[in-house]
Amino acid sequence: MDEEERGQxxxxxxxxxxxxxxxxxxxAGVLINTAGFLQTQAEATxxxxxxxxxxxxQIVSTSGDVDGSQNIQNVSFIVATSPGSGAxxxxxxxxxxxxxxxxxxxxxxxxxxxxxxxGAESGVLTDNSDRAELKFQIGTTTGFNDYTxxxxxxxxxxxxxxxxxxxxTVKEIRVPTTITSDDSSVRL
Length: 188
Hints:
The chain is of the alpha+beta class. The chain folds into two domains: 54 residues; 131 residues, Immunoglobulin-like, CATH 2.60.40.3580. 28% of the residues lie in helices and 34% in strands. The protein contains one helix and eleven strands. The strands form three sheets. Strands 6-8-2-1-11 form a five-stranded antiparallel beta sheet, with no helix packed on it. Strands 5-4-9-10 form a four-stranded antiparallel beta sheet, with no helix packed on it. The protein has a two-stranded antiparallel ribbon with strand order 3-7. The longest helix is centred in the N-terminal third of the chain and has 52 residues. The chain is rod-shaped.
């Protein structure tokens, strides 16, 4: 056995070993970067999904103002955020009315014709204890496009509130079967 040949075989093996370690280190770096990117993307998706489920409105009460011909002229909703919800900007919330007179969908904001926000600072509900009154005029020329007449006795309307995150709250309001001239406001 030649001593010099054994040393050369050992150096070749060492070079191959170092090359394999370098390739493994580069592959590990790529895997770590990819894992970090996927983790960030998964966190963003999780937060967005949670918002779509929890950042919604909770309707506390609904009432309507009775006009002189025993019809409902204005509908008021007292709303709050649902439990576990983040802040809800009412200015970026849409509402849809669907009923016997057709349907109408629009964004709620301070300048919106036929709607107003009372009680929420800048139209944003930040805490579960915050309340806001959303008032909608029905049956006026400044009200809805499709709801051109007031709600009459025993009429049913489905109202859907959709927040900016995409979470929806559906409320069916039903006008009482009998409204008397003594009634100035009724619970819906």
